[in-house]
Amino acid sequence: MSYNSEDYFLSNDFKAILKKFEEAENEGRFALLDSDELVDIAEYYYNNGKPDKAGEIIERTLSVYPGSAAPLLFQARLALIEDKDTAKAEYFTEMIEDKTDPEYFYMKAETMLYKGMADEADTYLKDRFDEIDDEDKDYFAIDSAALFIDYGAIKKAEKWLKRCEDTDLIDYKEQAARISLENGEYEKSKKLYNELIDEDPFSTQYWNSLASSQFFSNNIEDSIQSSEYSIAINPKNAAALLNKANGLYNLGNYKEALEYYKRYNELCPDDENGEMLIGFCNLLLEDFHGAIEHLAKAEKLLPPQSPSLIDVYKDWAFALCRLGRMDECMEVLDKTDKLDCDHNEMLVYRGSLLAGSGRKTEARELFFKALKNSGFSPNIFLKIAITVYESGDLALAYKIFKSLYEYYNGMTDGYAYFAACCYDLGRADEFLQCLKIASEHSPSELKALLEKLFPERMEPKDYYKYMFDKIKRNGKM
């Protein structure tokens, strides 16, 4: 649970407060700090894996400052985030003595948002906005926008931010940048984060957000560089380590990405994403034992019905398959039976692993079962054709592709794979026909599969003419 920026905990101001608190602790007394400062210290301990210590500080703070907003808000938010107990959150909120404190209003609205009552929260805050003094309205609007962003209500956040008149405020730019990022307006968000960095070049929060904007706009190298600036400011910044790892992974640098995922995992050992990503990297680096170890750890950290478990089990099974442990491989895939997924697709995946290990008869039985159970779904039909092609059984793959497109006349998905199959079989006329369809309907897939057949930097739209002319000129592909 973090409400202060990580940058604040790195600041000299906070370090001085923490030093004063710890010196008092060493002398056996409770530091004479105000309630906000004590709550900041509690949050610091909580974020650093010491929730019991944080709770002790909050209890002692309330004994000195009964009815104070800061410690009660800490307890209320903890009730929502950790206990998922809205009644408990409301109880702590109502214990706040000053019912005119804007933080009291925000907490009431946050509890409504947690309950899924976004419209009610909006109305409640609008009523409070109309009541407060004019000089406070800009910051109230900004803080309300931030709250709605936190809960994914971006349209409402935009309306709240428009109520702020001073658009030069740093806080305004922060929330405008967040909204732009959430809306996929990456150029706008990058511009705003660069402006914020000009104001505070040592903010890891700004560098990390800029890195995210750059990553999502496919400026991967720039994203990695922004992450490196953040890491230089704080080598233990988890978000920066994860951003850099994701950038490296996206560039195919799995070995270096793995090192940064490991560093992230050391800081956030309870985050299943760290274990999953380490497992995926190990798999791509063909360290199948390492992949199994970390995917098994991810399974334990994930909720029982998490959609992420599907990918975990598929990759875990793949690693076992590559190690020749097929019985264990099938047992892992059995775990998907209780998950909310396309079980016919899972039958095809099982078949692909069996086919790859030489058990083609069993694989074909599963393929037919998937087709029958799905009512001969064209999606399942196509997945089987691709799987058979990738297993190296070109003759059978050709027959399946041929049947698929004859049965579902007008279907255009998968033609890149059919083109590849026809090329491998030397079927020039059909290859050209498939090439033309794929270049029009799935150019990215076509490029990924067949770009080695064409001049470097040639666009897929030009593949057909190039290959047609080549065959006409040479009499062969």
Gist?
Helix content is 74%, strand content 0%. It has helices at 6-10, 12-26, 35-47, 51-64, 69-81, 86-94, 102-114, 118-131, 137-150, 154-162, 170-182, 186-199, 204-216, 220-233, 238-250, 254-267, 272-284, 288-301, 308-322, 326-334, 343-356, 360-373, 378-390, 394-407, 415-425, 428-441, 443-450, 463-474.
Sum up the structure in keywords.
477 residues; 28 helices
Protein described:
The structure is a single chain. By secondary structure, this protein is mainly α. Helix content is 74%, strand content 0%. The protein contains 28 helices and no strands. The protein has helices at residues 6-10, 12-26, 35-47, 51-64, 69-81, 86-94, 102-114, 118-131, 137-150, 154-162, 170-182, 186-199, 204-216, 220-233, 238-250, 254-267, 272-284, 288-301, 308-322, 326-334, 343-356, 360-373, 378-390, 394-407, 415-425, 428-441, 443-450, 463-474. Helix 5 runs antiparallel to helix 6 (86-94). The chain starts with 5 loop residues before the first helix and ends with a helix. The mean pLDDT is 94.
